[in-house]
Amino acid sequence: MKKKYLFLLVLLIIFKNTVWSQKKVLVTKSTTENITIDGKFNEKAWINADVATDFVMFEPDNGKPISADKKTEIKIIYDNNAVYIAASMYDNEPTKIQREITNRDVFGVSDHFSVFINGFNDGQQDFRFFVSAAGVQMDCLATEDFEDFSWDAIWDSKVVLTDFGWTVEMKIPYAALRFSNQEKQTWGINFMREIKRDVQKYTWNLVDTKIGAVIPQAGILEGISNIDTPTRLFLIPYSSIYNQRNDIGSETTFKAGLDLKYGINDSFTLDAILVPDFGQTKFDNAILILEPFEQQFQENRPFFTEGTDLFTKGNLFYSRRIGLAPTTEVNLNKDEEITNYPNSVDLINAVKVSGRTQKGLGVGFLNAVTEKTFATIRDTITNSQRKEVIEPLTNYNVLVFDQRFNQNSSVTFINTNTTRNGGFRDANVSGLLFDLSTKANSYNLYGDFKYSTINDVQDYNGYKTAINFAKTSGKYRYLFSGKYISENYDINDLGIIFYTNYHGFLANGSYRIVNPTKVFNTFKVEQEFNAEIQNTFGKLQEAWYKTVLKGTTLNNDYFEFAFVANPLVTYDFYEPREYNRYVFIPKRVSSYFGIEMNRNHPFTFDLTISGAKFDEEGRYNYGFYASPKYRFNDKLSLAYAIDYLNKKNDRGWVDTTTDGIIFAERNREYIQHDFTGKYAINEKMTINLTARYYWSYAKNHEFLTLQDDGKLALNTLYNENKNRNFNSWNFDLSYTWWFAPGSQLSFLYRNFALDRTDAVEKNFSTNFKNVLNNNLTTNLSVSIRYFIDYNTIKNSF
Fold it and tell me: I want to staple 556 with a disulfide (CB 3.0 to 4.6 A). Which of 120, 199, 236, 647 is the partner?
C-alpha cells in the first residue's frame, strides 16, 4: 500500500514539474481593421483572438495559481505596423485598485500590467512595457543583470476602470522592438500583473524563482508572419531658451537642434545627436572630496542612457568622460593667473548604432566628438591675455560584438578608444568577456581579460583578468571569484577605475526562502569573504568578512542587517598620493540596520543606522539615513530625506612637502537634506520639485608625518590651515507635459550655488545663508521637443 502511494506521489511530482517546465504558447492573428486604442476592445478583430489566461504567482508565493476573482485574460493581434494587446484584469474589490499618478517610468503605489517581449526568443533580452492602473507608462530594456528604464520607446496605451476591475489596451509599434527578418516570427513573451494592495505579482508563464534566470522562462508567441514593416525613421527637432542670472549679470541663450533615429533594418538602429542640448538634465550632487579619487557622477543625458546596454558590457565605458572636465592643467608663467577655466567640454555631436542579427550577434558602435577648449590666462604685470588649450578636439569610440548562444550564454568583445588631436594623450582598451550558463540556469561561469594601451609622454600597457563560478538556482547558492589587475592597467580615458595593481579572491554563500513562511514573505541570508593583496609589496589592501540578512515581513515591511569585520591590518596605497607609498589602516568592525515600511501606506518611513569602530583610540564613525514620505492622494506626494555621517578622529592626507607626506587627524561631518514633491495633473502632465542642501566640513586638530612603514608620527612643526568647509545648494521646479507620443513641453526654474572655504562654520543657519549669498545662479528655461514619424509625413502627402 505504501509503495502504491509512493508511486503516485512520484508521478505527481514528475507531472507537476513537467507541466511547469512546459512553455505556454499563444497564437496571434493578423488584422486589417483599424484598431482604436481606447481600452474598450470594440473591434471585431478581438472577438476571435486567442486568450492567454491561468496566471500563476511570481512572488511572494511562487507558483500559486491566481484566484478566480482575480482572473486575468490577454489577447494579441497584429498588423504591418504594430502588435496590439488587450488585457482584462478582474478584481472582486475594484474600488481598492491602487492607482497613484506618477511621472513616466516611476511605478508608485499602483496596480500594473506589463508585457515582456523577446523578438529573437533567445532568452537573453526583453523589451518590457508596463502600464499602471492610473494610465502611466513605464518601459525598459532588460537583461538578467539589470533593467534599463532610461530607454524610452514610443507606444500607445489606454486604461479603463470597469465594474469588474480594469482593462488595458496597448499598441506597440515594431519600431519599439527588435526581431529577426524571418517570414514566420517566433517570439518569447510573458505577461505580468501586479496587485499592489496585496503586494503580489503574477505571470502568465510560470517563472520559477528557484532558477536564477527569468528571461528564458517566458512563454511563446506564434502567428506573426509576412509582415511588411514600415520605414523606421524618426526626427525629433527641439528648441530651447535659457535665461541665466548671477552676480555678474544675466544672459539669454536660444538653442535649436535635431535628434535622429533611423532603423537600418528590423534589428539595427542608428541614433544621432546633430546639435546637442542637455540644459534640462538633472543636476549633479556636488560633495566635498577629500579622498584621492574623483567624484563619479550619474549619467543624466538621454542619448548616453537610452539603449546603451551593449556599451556597458565589461564596465569599460563611463559616458560622463564625454563632455566632463578638461584633462590638462594650465602651465603658468611668472606673474600669470587664470581668469577663465571652463569646468566642462562641449559635445559637438554623437552617433550610435546598435542591434542584433538573427543568429544572435549583437553589434554596437558609438562615436562622439568634443570641441577644442581653452583657458584664458592674464599677465598681472602687462595685463595682456593669452589662451591655452586644456582639452584638444577629441574623438571617442566604443565598439562591441556580443555573440549570444544556447539562450543564456554569451561571448563579448569590446574596444574603447580615445584620440586627442595633436600631441595629447591617447588611449585604447580592449576586453574579451565570456558568460556561460548551463541549460537549466543552475550554474554560471563568467570572466574577462582586458588590455589597456596608453600613448602619452611615457607609453605604458596593462591588463586585468577575472574568473567567477556561481551556483545560481535553488535555496542555497554560492559564488567563487578571483581577479588580477596589473600595475599599469588604465581605462580612465573613457572608463573609470580607482584601484589597480592587486589580486583578490571572493567567496559568497547564501540561503533564501522561495515561498512565504509563518514569519516572512521573503528572507535571505548571505555570508561573504573578500581578500585583496597589493602586487608590489604583497600587503593586504582589503580583507573583510560580511554577513547580511534581508527580508520582508508578512506585513510587507522590508528590513536589512549587515555586520562587516576587518580582522586584519590593511594598507591604503592611494591616500598618500605618492607612488609606492602606503598608509596603515587599523582593524575595524562596522554594521548597519535598515527598515522600509510597506509602500502601500499613505505614510511611509525609511530608516538606516550605521556605525564603525577602529582599533585606534577614539576613532569611530556613526551615521543615519531617515526619509518620511506622505502620499496625500493619487496626485500629490511629498518626501524628505536626511543623510548624516560623523567621523571622529578620521585620518587622511592634507599635503606633500619637502619634509614629507603630511596627514591630519581630524573630525569630519556631512549632512544632506533632500526634499522632493510631485503633483500630477494627469498621467501626461506633472509638476515636480527637487531641493538639495549639502554641508560638510573637515577640522584638523593634529598633524602627522607618514613613515616608510606606513605608520604615522606626530608632526608639531606643520601649521598650515587645511580645514575645509563646503556647502552646496540645488533647487529645481519643473512642469512637464507629454502632449503627444514622444513629444514634450517642459518649463524649468533652477537655482544653485557652491561655497568653499577653509574656515569651519558649524552653525546651520550661517552656512545656509552663506551658500545662498555666494554666487547664487538662477536659470529659467523652456524646451519643446516634437516627435515626427517619417511615415506620418509620407502618408500626409
Answer: 199
